[in-house]
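Before our next group meeting I need something from you. Please put the record directly below this note.
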Amino acid sequence: MIKPSIVLLFTISLLSSCATDKFTPSPVSGSPFSGNSAGSLEERFGANLKQNIHAAEITNLIATFPRFTNDAVNREVSVLKAYLQEYIYAYDDYNLTAKKKAHRNVEKCYRKIQNLRKYLNKDEDVVLNRYLTRIKTNITILETPTLLQP
């Protein structure tokens, strides 16, 4: 008589301890990766992914920036690269004040390079213009995240 009552008591305690407040048929259904919230997941990560792509393109432009025949242009390009690095670091760290400061410095350096472009030959001017345009476009997209949404 004691054994069946112990088994019954054990079974009741086991069932009561495993009871949950809310029944979920699947352990994945409440997660953000379920099919019901795929749109919100894409919205959350999609814009951030696109911004990271543009930040990576700026980094690639820094790495592949060509050398020019004019030393003054090369010096300003080196300064621009440093300011762009600061901007990317501030962007990655979500440091708004450092990002604004680096953005102002990039703009100043960009204007100086635009003034020095007249001392380059035609081919170098075209290459420099291509790089500067891509940098400016990517920074504009990073500064205005609403441009990313369709």
